[in-house]
Design goal:
This protein has 378 residues and is mainly beta. It contains 2 helices and 31 strands. Strand 16 and strand 17 form a beta hairpin.
């Protein structure tokens, strides 16, 4: 197995090494939305569709998928990650409707449904479970051939979503704290002792340089997004009593501790102890957090973390941002949410998102979209 250092030396020696990076929205480009989905027969797929809801292509999966990310140097391509405790990642070519490459987890490992591509080092980083030890790990692969280069401890148990920090040197990790084993695929084995944290990993050294925990250890940190300025917003899932009232979102931007976003008790109660996707609109400084068990999409100020507004969207979970925020649901619907900031509010404490501006404009008969959504260049 090549070490990561050997790989980087080899990559630096050739001018043809591919570079993976962020693709900004442009009207001149053709954009597709991509999500994992299931049909009424409990068959699982990943599908690409245009912004008007027309299916471009769909590819059958061996089991249920979870997150999807673009492969920006390959138009029409995306990676789809198996849902925990799955063992596959597929690179899918939606132009031709086929699987281009497949990654299989190493022995005694499974994926947690998430990963990121790094532009700086041309690598894929995934969150995985070493179920022989119960430790979470971050596995680094060559982004071209997906060969494993390095493996590092995630700084906790149950690493879930990952985010690349703007400098490209660090990875932020949502260590959910929940121990699982594929012999009991969806059972949570350590609720009484779970210890979630938000960790920052130095990609070059593999060292966890910082990690932060919440006082309430049953608030599992699961999904996150990173702003262009490096502010991390994370959504939480509560593992305690159903009658408990708990906050469900946090922020971190270099402070000595994690900060809860600001909302009334009524808002936290309505969110029903569960969040799914987190999406940031840097232009409007707005955060969207989906709450599928509450049938809500909630909106927050990126600047100060205050609750702004919400809109009902039955089983709405997947979120991504282009010119607008797009949302998908487990009911097979696509919604385009046209959010504007109030003109008379310099503190960004309110937004306009009336029902006239938010339209569940497409329904996909017989499909249930999974919890995550992305966009790719077609």
């Amino acid at each position: 197995m090549l070490t990561r250092r050997q790989f980087l030396i080899a990559a630096a020696a050739t001018s043809s090494a591919a570079v993976i990076g962020y693709i900004p929205f442009a009207q001149s480009q053709k954009h597709w939305l991509v999500s994992a989905c299931s049909n009424k027969n409990n068959e699982h797929f990943v599908a690409a569709f245009d912004l008007n809801g027309n299916i471009i292509n769909q590819v059958k999966l061996p089991a249920r998928g979870h997150d999807v990310i673009a492969v920006p140097n390959k138009p029409g391509h995306a990676l789809v990650f198996a849902r925990r405790p799955g063992t596959f990642i597929l690179e899918v070519d939606f132009i031709n409707g086929k699987i281009a490459k497949q990654i299989t987890a190493a022995e005694h490992s499974h994926f947690y449904g998430h990963g990121v591509l790094s532009a700086k080092d041309n690598i894929l980083l995934t969150s995985e479970n070493d179920f022989a030890t119960g430790h979470g790990k971050i596995v680094i692969r060559d982004a071209q051939n997906y060969q494993i280069l390095e493996q590092y401890h995630s700084g906790g148990i149950g690493p879930h979503q990952l985010g690349l920090m703007p400098d490209g040197n660090s990875l932020v990790i949502a260590n959910g704290g929940i121990q699982t084993h594929p012999k009991q695929p969806r059972k949570k084995l350590n609720i009484d002792t779970m210890a979630p944290n938000l960790a920052y990993l130095n990609i070059a050294s593999g060292q966890v340089e910082d990690k932060y925990a919440l006082e309430n250890h049953k608030l599992s940190i699961r999904h996150l997004a990173v702003s262009k300025q490096g502010k991390v917003i994370a959504g939480l899932q509560y593992q305690g009593a159903k009658t408990d009232l708990v906050p469900l979102a946090i922020s971190h931007h270099g402070e000595s501790s994690l900060r809860y976003l600001s909302a009334s008790d009524d808002v936290w109660r309505r969110m029903n102890q569960y969040t799914a996707s987190v999406c940031i609109d840097d232009n409007l400084a707005i955060v969207a957090i989906s709450c599928p068990r509450a049938d809500l999409i909630t909106y927050w100020s990126l600047k100060n973390g205050e609750y702004l507004n919400s809109e009902r969207f039955a089983d709405g979970a997947g979120l991504t941002h282009l010119d607008n925020i797009y949302a998908t649901s487990g009911k097979g619907r696509l919604m385009t949410s046209k959010i504007t900031r109030s003109a008379n509010n310099n503190n960004h404490n309110s937004i306009n998102n009336s029902n006239n501006d938010s339209v569940a404009n497409v329904s996909f008969a017989g499909l249930k979209w999974d919890n995550h959504l992305t966009h790719i260049v077609g």
